[in-house]
Design a protein that fits this description.
3 copies of one chain form a homotrimer. By secondary structure, chain A is α+β, with helices and mostly antiparallel strands. Chain A contains 3 helices and 7 strands, in the order αββββαβαββ. In chain A, the strands form 2 sheets. A 5-stranded mixed β-sheet of chain A has the order 1-2-7-5-6, with helices on one face. Chain A has a two-stranded antiparallel sheet with strand order 3-4.
Amino acid sequence: MSPIDTRLKSLDVVLPDVMPPVVDGYVSAFAPFVRSGDHIYLSGRLGKEDGKLLCGKVGDEIILDRAKLAARSVAIELLAVLKVAVGDLDRVRRIVKLLVMVNGAPHFTEPHKVADGASEFLVQVFGERGIHARSSCCVAQLPFGVCVEADMIAEVAPIAQK
Amino acid sequence: MSPIDTRLKSLDVVLPDVMPPVVDGYVSAFAPFVRSGDHIYLSGRLGKEDGKLLCGKVGDEIILDRAKLAARSVAIELLAVLKVAVGDLDRVRRIVKLLVMVNGAPHFTEPHKVADGASEFLVQVFGERGIHARSSCCVAQLPFGVCVEADMIAEVAPIAQK
Amino acid sequence: MSPIDTRLKSLDVVLPDVMPPVVDGYVSAFAPFVRSGDHIYLSGRLGKEDGKLLCGKVGDEIILDRAKLAARSVAIELLAVLKVAVGDLDRVRRIVKLLVMVNGAPHFTEPHKVADGASEFLVQVFGERGIHARSSCCVAQLPFGVCVEADMIAEVAPIAQK
């Protein structure tokens, strides 16, 4: 078991199946990820609770703590995609950037606290390599009315030259 | 005629003039694109219909199908900028990432379907190289009240060494 | 004094202290910046007036000119972070990309004019190297209810090989 897999196990995290059979990450009109050089660009993933999309406005139907856990579920899915992209999460050199979009009620001004649910998880898993740049905001709506979405850029080990 | 130009012609797509006389892509206080290494970063472009900005809230004044076509027009403009950036669209190695921002009515929860208008077009034109990572959301407003905006990152062939 | 420091002085701009004592840029659950290759990814910074967060809806409590100055303050903070990242702002090769998120009133459709406050400042400081790609939009809310947030990608000189 690789160090990161061991860490995930110690956190009781099981990476979900995030994709149908895949050709170069293709699904629908876009892909869960694209590799470009030593960077993986990951598509936005949607917040879940008990494996189902968690929909509603944060600060209204959805309280902060639930939204924060949904943001954590987004980070877990992003890692699942990243694992498909590089095979072994120990090949991740750095989580580079996160954009966290929160579906907030009109007066909810704490998207950064929701985003912490994803950020703290990434640091738990990767340690220093998990410390990333981040922006967070509240948007007007998200796909399916979900409460939080985030996308990510990660730097990974170069593909070995043959 | 290059393969991509031929494909565009077969789709009856004419790339618009997107820029005034240009110094290093400069226009206004920012540029339509910046090249950094082998990546082109493209500024957000705004959705149009019949060559004019299509303004209004998607899910209210603007129905989904119209917004999707406006998103397609954004992708066409992005390609026009990309052509200025690299001279020949066959030098595009990969459409890497799209961020699609939809000016949705409060209860419109299908920004991803609007975004498909851009995504599907890119795959039509570039095939596998057009499959990209993507995030989409509904924002509160966009420049001029336009219905959709998107920006893009593309990977292109290295500049030949002399 | 380096050329960029001289330029900042001529503009009467003093870069603020943006960070507590830093380990690899770490603060809270995320970092003000991450270096990846020759790029610095900067976290979103929040608009200020007289050194304090400027909160409220642009086009309502906050008029455009004030928001534009707040966007300029964001650009100043981004430069302060960038200076921590690379030591000397003359090592900045290019401001690559800006994402400007404006906390606008429902009918405010000029996020691009707010964003110009940041963009124009960057060009004043860096000249051609400051011309960047950009997207701007109005979001539903921002951290602490601040009126504007922006993040940035910059290309910097390679780290000298030893």
